[in-house]
Specification:
Shape: globular
Mean pLDDT: 86
Number of domains: 4
Number of helices: 16
Number of strands: 42
Distance between the termini: 49 Å
Radius of gyration: 25 Å
Largest sheet: 10 strands, mixed
CATH architecture of the largest domain: 3-Layer(aba) Sandwich
Helix content: 10-25%
Strand content: 25-35%
Strand order of the largest sheet: 21-20-24-26-35-34-33-29-27-28
């Protein structure tokens, strides 16, 4: 289950606040003050529930489902839709920045628009509202020895967090967070960490690398993981050999996942997707949807994965993990997102050799920079992380990653929910007012009335430390830095010296801010964007504005970093550190969309759209690329293209402000005019 969700009353009505995800949903005015009630009587688990009387509710929602008293789907409503319902108890399911269920006795009417849904009653009615956070936390801790057998024993506890063995396990909301993993001198279990009890067994070679690679598969199957000389997956009489210990578990995970996606369309939570239709002819999935899990998996294993994997979405994230036992402690967080885990020891470089590698990745910045430090700080070890076919690539290990995010274990302070919804901008260089004014406008434009946007200038070391200790959803620093800290009028502030911080997400838009960012995460922040070396001041201003727009458009931190690496200019100098699932300002619904624009041979424009997994929307989520296609698809879907004339393209850009890559440069659709088209 997730963290608690708060229900607040204000001048504009009720607002649901999920502090763990920095998310909120406005419900509008109601007739009576909500009364907390036990979270019971709903078709699915909820964290909190209330009752109140109201004449109607209105909220932003990416999807509306009406269920009967038994939880069975009555209908789904899309945008610009409407439906009237007579007397009788029903549940209205709203999918936004959290999952909401409204229990209604009827009669009532539902109306939907592009991003909004409203429930209207014939007369004021008593309703029960239940809500579930998308945030998941571990409920127990498994301590084990550092040898492969000990690690396999611990991973065998991961599958107990899967909430169903039906094909619906392909929905991320039914995959719970595994218990924490700690390395020690003996095996022990504290709290809730049940061992997987599936009839399936996953066997791998007795190496740390093999155990790490197979961890997501064992978790997804809810299966125990054992070591031995014959790597395989075994269920009843069916055996699938894992002949390649570094590739076979990953391929089998994708195969089983795609088969589940095809089968779940025949279950009680059916949600069609283009990928399911492509795989559907391979088996009798309608029959298998209701079959026992061992029978269903055995049938899956009888199909060549080459027939399903081509239809698999672009999987994300891919995590390269240093295959040492200490980094096995990160496995629970990785597999909770169903990340692909690839143990690796990439080449690493220090000193002048590191400078040469870094400069191959990032061209020397022309013009003035935000620091006079050297291109690579002495003592840093840079890791040349492999390229992956994924939107988000993570590095879990020693050193500073090139071409990937630095994934860090959240501190206990970083896991703590924060209620203060503030954006804090600190500018310690008065010559950089362009970025200050633009980001102030962007944050206020997107954040809405519930958020405060505070701007400070010329902060001393004492004042800057105070700003960092104050609770804030997002902290944006503009100025200069060195390896010794963030520059202030009276010296430098080293964030590693702070015992704790109150900021959730940060951007340190200054040269060489990597060490400062690591210090903020270690002191309690969830994550942020930092720089590896010198950055051109003009480009840095553009990056700061882009980060403000991306975060304001509900992009999670990991996707922000991935898009910055694709961006022209000094974008490759930026990387994210910490927890990439974190969302700074969740003030809108739907999934973030990224577009790319190219010119076809006939002179028309080819627009490619992508909605990658990220934040709370992990692999398996179904979405619809609004204004691109009416066909639901899995997040990360491939081949979502449309060809448009110039006028139609500009009309498309006017519908919604989204990031668009044009000739490798990051642009925004709202800013593109006819003269800007290639």
């Amino acid at each position: 289950m997730g963290e608690y969700v708060d229900l607040r009353s204000g001048a504009d009505g009720l607002t649901l606040v999920d502090p763990a995800m920095n998310a909120r949903m406005s419900l509008g005015p109601v007739g009576t003050e909500p009364t907390p009630v036990p979270p019971e009587g709903f078709p699915f688990p909820v964290d909190n529930a209330w009752e109140f009387t109201t004449g109607g509710l209105g909220t932003a929602s990416a999807g509306v489902v009406v269920r009967d008293d038994d939880g069975e789907i009555v209908c789904r409503l899309t945008e610009s839709d409407g439906e009237r319902f007579g007397p009788g108890r029903r549940f209205v399911e709203l999918s936004g920045s959290m999952k909401v269920y409204v229990r209604i006795a009827g009669p009532f009417e539902i109306r939907t628009e592009v991003d909004d849904a409203s429930i209207v009653f014939d007369a004021p009615s008593r309703v029960r509202l239940g809500v579930r956070s998308y945030h998941e936390t571990p409920t127990g801790t498994v301590t084990t020895t550092p040898d492969p057998e000990g690690l396999a024993w611990a991973v065998s506890r991961f599958g107990g967090a899967i909430k169903t063995d039906s094909p619906d396990r392909s929905y991320p909301t039914l995959r719970g967070h595994p218990p924490r993993l700690r390395i020690g001198n003996e095996r022990s279990v504290r709290g809730t960490a049940p061992r997987a009890r599936s009839e399936t067994t996953v066997a791998v070679e007795p190496t740390t690398e093999a155990v790490m690679t197979a961890a997501p598969l064992a978790y997804y199957l809810g299966a125990p993981l054992v070591t031995g000389s014959d790597p395989r997956v075994e269920v009843r009489d069916a055996v699938f050999p894992l002949s390649n210990p570094t590739e076979s578990p990953e391929r089998l995970l994708k195969h089983v996942f795609m088969c589940d996606v095809a089968a779940r369309q025949y279950g009680p939570n059916a949600a069609g997707a283009a990928e399911a239709a492509a795989v559907d002819p391979l088996l009798d999935f309608e029959r298998l949807a209701a079959a026992p899990e061992p029978e269903r998996l055995a049938a899956y294993l009888g199909v060549d994965p080459e027939r399903t994997i081509p239809h698999c979405p672009r999987w994300s994230p891919v995590a390269y993990v240093q295959p040492d036992a200490e980094y096995a402690e990160r496995l629970p967080d990785l597999v909770s997102r169903l990340s692909l885990v690839r143990p690796a020891r990439p080449p690493s470089y220090e000193g002048t050799e590191a400078a040469a590698v870094a400069l191959r990745r990032f061209a020397d910045p022309p013009g003035p920079t935000r620091s006079v430090a050297t291109a690579v700080d002495d003592g840093e070890r840079f890791v040349d992380v492999p390229t992956a076919d994924a939107t988000e690539t993570l590095w879990v290990g020693d050193g500073v990653p090139l071409g990937a995010a630095k994934s860090l274990q959240p501190s206990e302070g970083g896991r703590t929910a924060r209620l203060d919804q503030r954006v804090v901008v600190v500018c310690n260089d008065p010559s950089m007012t362009e970025e200050v004014e633009e980001v102030r406008r962007r944050y206020r434009e997107r954040a809405g009335l519930e958020y405060d946007v505070d701007v400070y200038g010329e902060q001393t070391t004492t004042q800057l430390a105070a700003r960092l200790r104050e609770e804030a959803s997002f902290f944006h620093f503009i100025g200069h830095a060195t390896a010794d800290g963030l520059e202030c009028p009276d010296g430098r502030l080293d964030p590693t010296t702070l015992d704790s911080v109150g900021v959730t997400v940060f951007l340190l838009n200054a040269c060489h801010s990597y060490r400062a960012g690591i210090g903020l995460v270690e002191s309690g922040a969830r994550g942020g964007v930092v720089t590896l070396g010198d950055i051109n001041t003009h480009d840095a201003t553009g990056v700061g504005i882009d980060v403000a727009r991306l975060l304001g458009n509900h992009f999670p931190l990991g996707l922000v970093g991935a898009l910055l690496r694709r961006r022209g200019g000094n974008g490759g100098q930026y990387l994210t550190v910490g927890d990439g699932t974190t969302i700074a300002v969740a003030d809108r619904q739907g999934v973030p969309t990224v577009c790319s624009l190219a010119v076809a041979e006939d002179g028309r424009y080819v627009l490619s759209a992508d909605a990658p997994p990220g934040g709370s929307e992990h692999i398996g989520t179904v979405g619809r690329l609004r204004n691109v296609t009416d066909t639901p698809c899995l997040l990360g879907a491939r081949n979502t293209e449309i060809t448009l004339e110039a006028d139609a393209l500009l009309d498309f850009f006017a519908l919604e402000d989204v990031p668009v890559f044009v000739d490798g440069d990051l642009r925004w659709s709202a800013d593109i005019e006819r003269a800007d088209l290639p």
